[in-house]
Amino acid sequence: MHILLESSQGLSESDMIKRAKVNRVLVYPVSTFWLEEKRYSDNMVLLGFGNVPEANIVDGVRQLAKAWEI
Question: Which domain holds residue 29?
């Protein structure tokens, strides 16, 4: 299972990935899957949560909020 997350904070895909990693959360780039690179806004990441316990998901979301200053 995945969720596509779009930053409304002005963060780029690489910024989102780097900040998440610092906070021990792994998110994935979207750009590698985008068919028309020119139409990609460079502000999205993919969050995978399949087979992750609910408590870990909640903690991960908290860590992402902290990482992305939401």
Answer: 2-67
